[in-house]
Write a structure and sequence with these properties.
The protein contains 8 helices and 4 strands. It is α+β, with helices and mostly antiparallel strands. The protein has a domain of 107 residues: Nuclear Transport Factor 2, Chain: A. The protein has a 4-stranded antiparallel sheet. Strand 1 and strand 2 form a beta hairpin. The longest helix has 23 residues.
Length: 182
């Protein structure tokens, strides 16, 4: 019985210590996202058409030049098929951070994004595709073939490399695009 009470007491103390660490960790800078993590989150949300999340990653300077509504309007995909394909393609993308340089409140992140090479994908799918003339809905058949091809996994990829600037605003890294008003 005495052993059980001692065990319960130690468990409560350990739980209290863990809770204190979790609560105070943001105050001391633990748990905050690094510039490369913010950039990757920004790109993933942009590519998958999650534009509210994308906008939340932007710097105050960019937000001062474009409202969230306008940003979403300018970057939204138009139809459900395009959105579905964007999400599928986004799930296949790979992100490799090549270099991150932090200088006080600015960071430069060099990243390589590997994405499905859509020109090759389309060529492989639609090049030989002729479909029977009696097909009721050839557009739907083409959409189905594209979705199946992308989901199969062995998709030709292409690398794009880019460098992004991030700024530290109130302890959080934000993507700086230097948006200009239109």
């Amino acid at each position: 019985m005495k052993y059980l009470k001692l065990k319960e007491s130690l468990l409560r103390k350990l739980t209290t210590i863990i809770l204190i660490l979790l609560i105070t960790s943001p105050v001391f800078g633990f748990g905050k996202e690094a510039p490369d993590q913010v950039l990757t989150k920004y790109l993933k949300s942009l590519y998958s058409n999650n534009l509210k999340k994308t906008y939340s990653c932007l710097s105050k300077a960019d937000k001062s030049t474009i409202s969230r509504i306008e940003f979403i309007k300018q970057n939204s995909l138009s139809d459900s098929f395009t959105i579905e394909i964007a999400k599928t393609v986004s799930s296949l993308r790979k992100y490799k951070i090549n270099d991150t340089i932090i200088d006080k409140d600015k960071a430069t992140v060099d990243i390589t994004v590997s994405s499905p090479d859509m020109s090759k994908v389309m060529g492989e799918i639609f090049g030989p595709f002729h479909g029977p003339k009696s097909m009721e809905n050839p557009q739907e058949a083409a959409r189905y073939m594209l979705k199946q091809y992308l989901k199969k996994g062995n998709v030709p990829m292409v690398d794009e490399r880019g460098t992004f600037t991030l700024v530290n605003e109130e302890g959080r890294w934000k993507v700086l695009l230097n948006q200009t008003q239109k």
